[in-house]
Specification:
401 residues, mainly alpha, 3-stranded antiparallel β-sheet, 15 helices, 65% helix
């Protein structure tokens, strides 16, 4: 049994996995954007000055901000984390609504998903997922003894539904779907009765079908089934992703030598950067990426296992799931396992919002990895035994069902 008064150093292995992914991200962002000026508009122009470093400099600047945010969140105690849960959720909702305000929100390709923040933009949906995890951790910790009540289940579902409605109005189906998966996963881990979760899934199916019947989503779904039917139209991006991954072989064509980044594969520096890794670094490169994400997941679960309170347990589990699920979905998209969704690859893709939120999450996880006694509720050995016994009993009951 773990000593309730024992403290640990922050998890260096988890930090190593994050830094390894980040370094690879910096390299691939530069590789994907250094020649972007030469291929824009399908015309060759001469890169002037340090234009080839334009995106790299912005990425490094965002990375510096993200690391600073990580250090700030690392300074928070579990008591402070719990105190900011509701304020974070309120701020997230306000930011999501702010994208609809003219002059504040930014509309790109028919979607309003970004806020104008100098010198760049910010996507509130990434922060909303982060805030939702905080809310779930606080709510589930405070309602542990009322888990069997339907009211306890419906409140977080209602909060999730409100956020999803705002996301769908932007529209941002990918983020809304990911938020739903994260919420249901955390509720399942918390011991929510399976009958409630099944009821929710059954009720959500007609809504999901109706959303997928939207012409542009239905077209995306059909082309996902066979992108080669329209390789120069709707299936172009996925086909080019396949070409990039297939060209890499075992060792890749060489760092910087990829051809798909020359205006063939759209969004190659953001949503489809995994394809470029496959092309330039081959199977070895993508295997390393998956290995580091697996290492991050395993160490994150270990941090949750050391949690000194239900709040710390749910918070660490939620943040680990948020990052790893997004990574899995991104990889599944670029390899054609699921329909195309606009989700970046954590720690690697170019773009400030996802990188910032991911590093904020890492700061929280590193603090919780120290397994310090909770300041707002000192845990005794008997308390820890009772909590783990209740969780074990729920798992046994769930297997029996």
């Amino acid at each position: 049994m773990m000593d309730p008064l024992k403290t640990y150093r922050y998890d260096k292995v988890l930090l190593f996995s994050v830094l390894a992914l980040t370094v690879m991200g910096v390299i691939m962002v530069y590789s994907s954007t250094a020649l972007m000026s030469l291929s824009q508009g399908k015309r060759l122009i001469t890169a002037q000055g340090d234009y080839q470093f334009f995106f790299l400099k912005r990425h490094i600047m965002t990375l510096a901000i993200s690391v600073t945010a990580m250090l700030i969140f690392y300074r928070l105690t579990p008591r402070h984390m719990k105190a900011i849960a509701i304020p974070l959720l309120v701020i997230a909702v306000l930011m999501l609504l702010a994208v609809f305000i003219p002059g504040v929100g930014l509309k790109i390709n028919g979607a309003r998903r970004w806020l104008k923040l100098w010198p760049s933009t910010f996507q509130p949906s990434e922060f909303a997922k982060f805030a939702m995890v905080f809310f779930l951790a606080k709510y589930l910790a405070e309602t542990e003894d009322a888990r069997e009540k339907f009211k306890t289940f419906i409140i977080p579902i209602a909060v999730m539904g409100v956020i999803q409605l705002i996301l769908l109005r932007q529209p941002d189906f990918g983020s809304a779907f990911t938020l739903g998966v994260i919420t249901v996963s955390v509720l399942f881990i918390a011991g929510t009765p399976v009958r409630y979760l099944l009821l929710f899934v059954v009720a959500a199916v007609p809504v999901l079908v109706a959303l997928l019947m939207e012409p542009y989503r239905l077209k995306r779904l059909l082309i996902f089934i066979d992108p080669w039917k329209d390789p120069y139209g709707s299936g172009f991006q996925l086909v080019q992703s396949f070409i990039a991954l297939g060209s890499g072989g075992l060792k890749g064509v060489g760092l910087g030598a990829g051809r798909q980044k020359l205006s063939f594969l759209p969004e190659i520096n953001t949503d489809f950067i995994f394809s470029l890794i496959g092309e330039e670094l081959g199977l070895i490169g993508v295997s390393l990426v998956l290995l580091f994400f697996a290492l991050f997941f395993v160490r994150g679960i270990r941090i949750a296992g050391r949690a000194r309170s239900p709040f710390s347990f749910y918070l660490s589990m939620g943040l680990v799931l948020m990052i790893t699920l997004q990574a899995l979905i991104n990889v599944a998209v670029v390899t054609g396992l699921v329909p195309t969704k606009g989700l970046p690859l954590p720690f690697i893709s170019y773009g400030g919002s996802a990188l910032l939120v991911s590093y904020m999450s890492v700061g929280i996880l590193l603090r919780l990895s120290k397994a310090e006694p909770e300041q707002y509720s000192l845990a005794t050995t008997q308390d820890l035994i009772k909590r783990r016994a209740r969780l074990k009993a729920r798992m046994i009951k769930r297997r029996a069902i």
